[in-house]
Every structure is written in C-alpha cells, then in structure tokens.
C-alpha cells in the first residue's frame, strides 16, 4: 500500500498545513496507520485469508513516518526499512534555515570527501591562490556552520551537522539565493509552526523552543522501541 498522507502537494508546498492541525496530524502519523488498517482488510478480503507478515519501506519523511507508526501502533508491521529518517522534524526544518541563513560558499570546490582528515582551513585563499579553487574567510565560516553540530548557549546540542560529501544536496536543502529564502525549512515554519507573516529575518533559537513545545504534526519520534522489539519486530 501507499498513501498521500492526506494531501497532494509539491516538495516545497506546505500550504495544505496552514491553520489545519487535522491535516498536520494526518501527515504526522494518522494517515499511515489508517492506510495500513484498510490495506490489510482489502488484502484479506481479496485473498480470503489474513496476511502472515507486513513490512514497510520508506525514506526521509517516509522513514520518519515508519518509525512513528511502530512507536504508536505495535501491530501494524513486523519490520520496517527506514532510510535516512527525518527523525525530529522540529529540529530538522529549523536547522535547514539556520544553516541557509549563512549562504553558501561561492566558487567552492564541488566535492568534499568524507575520507581522510579534512582541514577546511587549507582552502583559505591567499594572494597566490586560484580564486576558483579556494575559500574566503566568510566562506570558511559558512562551511563551519554546515559541517559542525548546531549548538546554542552553554554548548547545548540542537541538531547534528551535515555529513562530509553531502554537498550535492546543497541546492535542495540550503539557501542559494540571498534575496529569496525558499528552502523547505522556511515553508515548515510558516505553514506548520507560525503563519504566513513570519519573516526569516526574525529567526532565533526561540523557533526551536516553540517547535519542541508545540510539535505541530505530533511527528517527532522518541528513542524507545522496546515494545516493538519485544513482539519480534525488526528495524533496518
């Protein structure tokens, strides 16, 4: 089975969520469970017998929804494959904004390997450098925010850093136009957390505090799957 989670939209279109908590809850967890229940009934009626096993596969928000399902409904699946799950929406989306506000390095090398001991300071431009293959001081600062955990006052951990070599995703996840911040975190904050009038210039750590408190879609996943494990469930 598959589900549209209660709405039809593009990747960056969160208009369906604005002032619509019921649709947000559908996206966060309800539609998945409801679809599973109905699918089992339909499959059982077609084959004339109940199914023996049920499994789930999803990635990104699909991985998140798989985890959320087995956290709330132990009997839905016997196993799940959750690839790159967007584990904690209330931190992930604001983190995209936090990093994007620093902009991207201009004319940076196109790939940074995760192998070896990467020292970004070695890329600092000098008077003899090829300007297309080095970074300025501000660009190195941007790189620091991308590849270091987000921490706030007293080194409070907020969200993990981007992995080395993930630069192919920059154009999708980070701001590449200083005058037009349109990446997905902005849409989530405007449509799910606050409202259309929220200005990205006002971004502060308060966004995290509000997001964790409100948890708009009730989609955040905990860290304890003991119940699923005890009934023999498998997770990859």
From TrEMBL:
Source organism, top-level taxon: Eukaryota
EC number: 3.1.1.-
One Pfam family in the UniProt entry: Tannase
Enzyme class: hydrolase
Keywords tagged on the record: Disulfide bond, Hydrolase, Serine esterase, Signal
Molecular functions per Gene Ontology: carboxylic ester hydrolase activity
Signal keyword on record: yes
Family: Belongs to the tannase family.
Name this protein carries in UniProt: Carboxylic ester hydrolase
UniProt source species: Cladophialophora psammophila CBS 110553
